[in-house]
């Protein structure tokens, strides 16, 4: 009986971590999309805020993600960091371009 409980608990943990990664990746994608929208409107500070939120979610998702999804999440995280760096310097065009690249990676990770 103890072994059965341990196996069930282990399976639930594995299932919950993949759901956790998916939720954070989806949240990162939404924030990244908002960063792009605000970047195209020229709102650099709001772009940076959304890019930071997206980066936080993507880094959390990358911890538990696996395989190709993990690679895309990590690549998206790098693009988000570039977006934050350029946005902080006031380079809205470059920041928006990096946010767009992050969106593409995060979309690929969420497939």
Automatic annotation (TrEMBL):
CDD domains, sorted: SMBP_like
Record-linked InterPro entries: SmbP
Gene3D superfamilies: IL-4 antagonist (De novo design) like domain
Transmembrane regions listed in the UniProt entry: none
Organism for this UniProt entry: Candidatus Methylobacter oryzae
Pfam family, one: SMBP
Top-rank lineage group of the source organism: Bacteria
Keywords: Signal
Signal peptide boundaries: 1-21
Name of the protein described by the UniProt record: Metal-binding protein SmbP
């Amino acid at each position: 009986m103890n072994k059965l409980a341990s196996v069930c608990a282990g399976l639930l943990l594995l299932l919950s971590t993949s759901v956790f990664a998916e939720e954070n990746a989806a949240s990162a994608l939404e924030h990244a999309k908002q960063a792009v929208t605000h970047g195209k409107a020229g709102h650099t500070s709001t772009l940076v805020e959304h890019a930071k939120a997206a980066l936080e979610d993507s880094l959390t998702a990358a911890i538990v993600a696996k395989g190709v999804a993990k690679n895309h999440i990590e690549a998206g995280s790098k693009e988000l960091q570039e977006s934050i760096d350029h946005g902080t310097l006031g380079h809205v065009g470059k920041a928006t371009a990096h946010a767009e690249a992050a969106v593409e990676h995060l979309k690929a990770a969420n497939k």
